[in-house]
């Protein structure tokens, strides 16, 4: 017992000493700040070089990649890798690399899946009684409410686990207080995105059964199915995803539209396999 | 998994390099397998887990019709030996055709016992898929 204690103490000391020595060597306190030795000009050149490499790679055919496979064979491998795992974890997902010019807006849009993975949860923000009634009774929306719903989200009483949110114009100003909670999750209703309207019914009808996606960093990643889906179902979903991605590229407001690059099919525990997406 | 070489090795392990379970099972006769064992390794449950990890992906790859269920039970108590460690081979009608006790056995021993209890045909070398 005593010996163990002693060892523990010495280990702790050793750790402290090594830390002190390291700090002395680097001459910095806390985490070491990474400062590049390259000049501004060189950094710019490097960025340009990397961009051209990514662009060239994106234009190469998928068949030239060593991990390329036909979709049915890829699914066979993924299902094998996922064997015995609980079904809730056997999700097949698709990642597409995006090469975009600096400053061009991120890709985003909606995918209308043929076989959806889950029900789309819709939230409605409105103070209008009749609109509330329509949303509740006709469409059975996940959460419906006005000012009191906003204050509940603000206090953390209601979790933000819905996929889409719509609002009527009378409540938009109040929504500003929860913008920091809804915004990062992509469920902040705004006129610019077309999710604010006097008539909630039309909004819901136009968006029922479609799941939103958006570009994060250099890629778009979406879940397209479960391992127990048939090959046909997954291929149908893949085609609808491709349509949605291409639509978002064609409607992008920029002079130089982004390029869709390498596409990888993967599962929760499985490997990533390159497929031909174009 | 980052490097392409590593990924190819992983894929080939499923389809090419795991020899014992490169077999074809008649889907009309057998419905699937059901394995039950612990999350934890103690009380001789390690072989069952290794069998699942090492050999079942290959079996599933060459027999996509086969239903493979793995039930893992949490048991932190080392003195509790009541958790079963068995594999059941079920028929189309749902009746168990054979049961294999996997407790205190290595994964390679479980494979040989499994192959002895199930009718199968070995896949010839030229039909194996290489990535």
TrEMBL record, chain A:
One of the protein's GO biological processes: translation
GO terms for cellular component: mitochondrial large ribosomal subunit
Subcellular location: Mitochondrion
Keywords: Mitochondrion, Ribonucleoprotein, Ribosomal protein
Molecular functions (GO terms): RNA binding; structural constituent of ribosome
Keyword Ribonucleoprotein among record annotations: yes
PROSITE patterns, A to Z: RIBOSOMAL_L1 (PS01199)
Top-level taxon: Eukaryota
Family membership: Belongs to the universal ribosomal protein uL1 family.
PANTHER family documented for this protein: 54S RIBOSOMAL PROTEIN L1, MITOCHONDRIAL (PTHR36427), LARGE RIBOSOMAL SUBUNIT PROTEIN UL1M (PTHR36427:SF3)
Descriptive protein name: Ribosomal protein
Organism expressing this protein natively: Tetrapisispora phaffii (strain ATCC 24235 / CBS 4417 / NBRC 1672 / NRRL Y-8282 / UCD 70-5)
Gene (name only): TPHA0J00770
From TrEMBL, chain B:
Signal peptide per UniProt: none
MF annotations from Gene Ontology: structural constituent of ribosome
Keyword Mitochondrion: yes
Source organism, top-level taxon: Eukaryota
Limits of the Ribosomal protein/NADH dehydrogenase domain: 40-121
Intracellular or extracellular location(s): Mitochondrion
GO biological-process terms attached to the record: mitochondrial translation
GO cellular component entries: mitochondrial large ribosomal subunit
Keywords carried by this UniProt record: Mitochondrion, Ribonucleoprotein, Ribosomal protein
Predominant location category: mitochondrion
One Pfam family hit: L51_S25_CI-B8
Descriptive protein name: Ribosomal protein/NADH dehydrogenase domain-containing protein
Organism: Tetrapisispora phaffii (strain ATCC 24235 / CBS 4417 / NBRC 1672 / NRRL Y-8282 / UCD 70-5)
């Amino acid at each position: 017992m005593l010996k163990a204690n002693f060892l523990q103490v010495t280990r702790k000391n050793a750790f402290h000493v090594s830390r002190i020595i390291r700090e002395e060597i680097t001459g910095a306190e806390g985490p070491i700040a990474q400062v590049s030795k390259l000049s501004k000009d060189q950094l710019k050149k490097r960025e340009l070089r990397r961009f051209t490499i990514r662009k060239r790679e994106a234009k190469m055919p998928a068949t030239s990649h060593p991990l390329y496979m036909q979709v049915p064979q890829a699914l066979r491998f993924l299902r094998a890798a996922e064997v015995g795992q609980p079904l809730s974890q056997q999700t097949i997902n698709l990642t597409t690399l995006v090469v975009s010019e600096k400053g061009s807006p991120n890709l985003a849009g909606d995918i209308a899946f043929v076989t959806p993975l889950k029900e789309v949860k819709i939230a409605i923000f409105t103070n209008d009684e009749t609109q509330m009634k329509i949303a509740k009774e006709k469409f059975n929306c996940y959460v419906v409410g006005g000012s009191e719903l906003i204050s509940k989200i603000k206090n953390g009483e209601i979790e933000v686990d819905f996929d889409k949110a719509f609002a009527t114009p009378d409540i938009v100003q109040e929504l500003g207080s929860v913008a920091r909670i809804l915004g990062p999750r992509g469920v902040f209703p705004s006129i610019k995105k077309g999710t604010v309207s006097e008539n909630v019914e039309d909004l819901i009808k136009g968006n029922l059964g479609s799941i939103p996606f958006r570009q994060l960093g250099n890629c778009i990643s979406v879940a397209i199915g479960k391992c127990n889906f048939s090959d046909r179902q997954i291929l149908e979903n893949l085609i609808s995803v491709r349509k949605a991605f291409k639509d978002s590229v064609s409607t992008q407001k920029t002079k130089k539209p982004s390029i869709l690059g390498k596409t990888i099919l993967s599962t929760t525990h499985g490997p990533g396999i390159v497929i031909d997406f174009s | 998994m980052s490097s392409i070489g590593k990924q190819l090795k992983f894929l080939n392990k499923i389809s090419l390099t795991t020899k014992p379970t490169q077999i074809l099972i008649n889907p009309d006769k057998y419905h699937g397998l059901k394995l039950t064992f612990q999350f934890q390794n103690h009380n001789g449950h390690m072989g069952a887990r290794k069998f699942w990890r090492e050999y079942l992906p290959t079996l599933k790859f060459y027999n996509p019709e086969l239903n493979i269920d793995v039930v893992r039970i949490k048991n932190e108590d080392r003195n509790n030996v009541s958790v079963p460690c068995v594999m059941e081979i079920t028929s189309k009608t749902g009746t168990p055709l054979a049961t294999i006790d996997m407790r205190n056995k290595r994964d390679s021993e479980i494979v040989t016992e499994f192959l002895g209890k199930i009718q199968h045909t070995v896949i010839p070398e030229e039909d194996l898929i290489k990535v």
